[in-house]
# Entry
Amino acid sequence: MLYYVDTMSILRQIFETLREHYAAKPNYPWWPENPIEVIFGAILVAGSTWPSVDKILAEFRSKELLDFRKILQLPDDELATLIRPAGLQSKKAPRIRAIAHLILERSGGDLDLYFSRDFDEIRRELLSISGIGPSTADNILLYAGHVPIYMVDMFTVRMLVRHGIVGAHVNDFQIQELIHRELTPDEEPYGAKLFQKMQEYLVRLGRDFCDKSRPNCWHCPLNSYLPEGGALGISEKPSPKVLQPRIQPRTLPNVSVQPTPKPVALPELNETELQIIEAIGKETMPIDDLVEKVQLPVHIVRATIAVLQMKKLVCQVEGNQVRRVSP
# Structure
């Protein structure tokens, strides 16, 4: 199924370019097809890695625990032991129980019935569970419920900022609105599949070319979409081999496109410290949300925060929260 329209937006053209580039590549390991595995996996993967979560889900399958009722009947200590490889088991176990209880209460465990309701209502329900943030909720909606709602992740933000499509300080909600407006096809039910593929392509792009600190712009399939002068928002000087764009990125309506701010001189930081400091926005941020955002083990995040405190770049505040210290 092609998604061409008469006048394609920049994002639609990017999607088609990536679709063509990855069409001949091997299939990419992506979210499981079983929606219950997706739901549990979306909760477990926060602050962990997918290989660890995949092993837990395999254990769930072998013990026939991919069942909401059986999860609620499982003793607390057994559930905590099963999910320990993903870390934060004392917090993730209650989340798994809470979502199992919610789905049973709303639909008797029938996921088709559960996801057939108004998705704004479903999203509010998921966000009402302590510890489930917007990315986890949207992940569940998109991959378990096949609801056409795009899950904004770091790979999406990185590509949009570097290509000058959005400014560095546009929030995830604005990016989601932009993608919904520019990518939703005219025919249903392709919306969810289109969003799933777009995210898969951008994850692959991020790992193959659009590295956080050392992007390989010269070989990137989206090279021709870069603004004049090369990728935005990276500290390294762009390669002189970067091609001039065939298509000049444009300012899209209702999305604030701001010039990339001049970098502030920072003490020498390693890659993990840079990732943490960049993930902490201007406002105070719960450490649990930070762990989910950077997708690193919680002990690494906390240790890094301690180092950044010593360097007087961040400070912890009441309520297990952290914020940047203004230079």
